[in-house]
Amino acid sequence: MVAIIDYGMGNVASVQKALNFLKIECVITNDHRSIKNAECIILPGVGSFMRGMMNLKERGLDTLLTEEVIVKKKKFLGICLGMQLLIENGTEPLDSKGLGWIKGTVKKFDVPGLRVPHMGWNDITIVKDTFYKGIGDLDFYFIHSYHMVPQNKSVIAATVNYGGEVVASIQQENIFATQFHPEKSQVAGLTVLRSFFEQNA
Amino acid sequence: MLKIRIIPILTFNGFGLVKTKNFANPRMVGNPVQAARVYNSRGVDELVFLDIFASEQKRKINLKLVADVIKECYMPVAIGGGIKTIEDINSLLKIGADKVVIKTKIIEEPEFINEASGVFGAQCITVAIDVIKNNEQYYVFNKLNKEILLIDFLKQLPSHRFGEIVLTSVNCDGMMNGFDIDLVKLVEKNISVPIVVAGGGGEPKHFEELFSQTQVEAVGATSIFHFTQYTPHDLKNAIASVGKPVRILKNSVHSK
């Protein structure tokens, strides 16, 4: 069973729809017992970093997720804000602490001549292909104004170019995360999700 | 490289899909769920679904129908029509909308933009601006009997947080005679978020004109898909011919 974390930060229904399509059993939940019992955790989310952390804390999910993912090494997938929240320090809209699983920070796009948010389909450059084998198309759907800047570049699984190379995906032990929305990226996105779950079955 | 988005805009009257000309004379053009299914199978970049009479008829959008439309889509979907409250937005996001499109409420109460983006994030708030040209002046089209110069409306927008604009020319709507390029140039100068241009695309050369003469990255279209044989793929080839990047799919598309 996959637990899709419900913490009041946006479109969890689409993640569930994509998993249903792939015939992967999942539940949208913030119940601690269900999360502990799940074999895999997905943290989706859109919106601001500060509010995302606040919502996790209010539900006691920050410590629970750290226990499950960092201590117990449970398989974890972060999407969009759910990737950014893994970092130590956020800046959106003010400086605030993240989950701190990945060292580094997030930065607002400063790209003269380009529009912000970075919104739409953009092609990624794959650095670690564990979950990117056989995807065919390289275009994924992005929608974000901030991007992750990890201290240790070896966590980067893919990058994307928008006024310079920025992080599109990270991978560290049992943790995999994407800045883009695989659940909104048609065939390529579903292929990444399938690949992640098949390799973690 | 970020690709140009081609976005079918489905306009709905509460019963079925309709297509207007100059925002009038709605003509029935089909079933929204079937249309969404077809666009999904063609792998379109994104979809916009608007209930264009909800505000005027003082009713809420049909959530059940919207949910059925969204179920067909494995790409981003923006939904609009009759949005007045934070709860209205929440109801749409909960059933899988990625963005909401707001027009009338923003004209009545511009502060609602920040209220909404404060709760849901700027990225999911899309501002719709319908523009009508009278005596060589651009005005914000509305059914509230307000006379608002477009330039005044644009100047006050940057103090609000939102993710995108859907810009529609009322004069060009449904006419299939080409986009109002001067209007697009005026708006892109004054706005820093992505702009979806709609109204007027009737054949591929109109899309070539738009993308060779402006820097916008997205275009909405309706009539061309309902009334001609052209597909989103044909338009992508046209846009690629003027040197702009588009997403051409190698994969076949998943279908249920």
What tags apply to this protein structure?
heterodimer; A: 201 residues; alpha/beta; Rossmann fold; 9-stranded mixed beta sheet; 4-stranded mixed beta sheet; 6 helices; 27% helix; 34% strand; B: 256 residues; TIM Barrel; 8-stranded parallel β-barrel; two-stranded antiparallel ribbon; 10 helices; 11 strands; globular
Can you describe this structure in just a few lines?
The complex is a heterodimer of chains A (201) and B (256). Chain A has helices at 12-21, 32-37, 49-58, 61-71, 81-84, 186-199, and strands at 2-5, 26-29, 40-43, 75-79, 87-90, 96-97, 102-108, 118-126, 139-144, 146-150, 156-161, 165-172, 175-178.
Sheet of most strands of chain A: 9 strands, mixed
- In DSSP terms, counting alpha (H) and pi (I) runs of 4 or more, how many helices of chain B? 10
N-to-C order of helices and strands of chain B:
EEEHEHEHEHHEEHEHEHEHH
What radius of gyration of chain A results from the CA coordinates? 15 Å
Question: Which pair of protein chains has the largest interface, and what are the residue counts?
Answer: A-B, 39 and 39 residues
Nearest-integer average pLDDT of chain B:
94
Query: What is the domain tally of chain B?
Result: 1
Written description of the protein model:
The complex is a heterodimer of chains A (201) and B (256). Chain A is α/β, with parallel strands linked by helices. Chain A has a single domain (2-199), classed as Class I glutamine amidotransferase (GATase) domain (Rossmann fold, 3-Layer(aba) Sandwich), CATH 3.40.50. Helices cover 27% and strands 34% of the residues of chain A. Chain A has 6 helices and 13 strands. Chain A has helices at 12-21, 32-37, 49-58, 61-71, 81-84, 186-199; strands spanning 2-5, 26-29, 40-43, 75-79, 87-90, 96-97, 102-108, 118-126, 139-144, 146-150, 156-161, 165-172, 175-178. In chain A, the strands form 2 sheets. Chain A has a 9-stranded mixed sheet with strand order 2-1-3-4-13-12-11-8-9. A 4-stranded mixed sheet of chain A has the order 6-5-7-10, with helices on one face. The model of chain A has no long low-confidence stretch (mean pLDDT 94). Chain B has one domain (5-241): Aldolase class I (TIM Barrel, Alpha-Beta Barrel), CATH 3.20.20.70. The mean pLDDT of chain B is 94. Chain B is globular and about 40 Å long. Chain B is of the alpha/beta class. In chain B, the strands form 2 sheets. Chain B has an 8-stranded parallel beta barrel with strand order 1-4-5-6-7-9-10-11, surrounded by 5 helices. In chain B, strands 2-3 form a two-stranded antiparallel ribbon. The interface between A and B is large, with 39 and 39 residues.
